[in-house]
Amino acid sequence: MMNLMQTSSATSLRVGLAVGLAVLAAVLAGLVHDGRADAFDLALRLRLLALDTAGAVAVWRAVSMLGSGAVLALLAVVALTILVVNVERRAAWHLAFVMIMAIVLENGLKWLVHRARPPEIFPHTMPASYSFPSGHALFSFAFYVTIVLIAQHHVRGRLPVVALWAGATCLVVLIGASRLFLGVHYPSDVLGGYLVAAFCICVVRRG
Question: For the whole model, what pTM was predicted?
Answer without folding.
Answer: 0.91
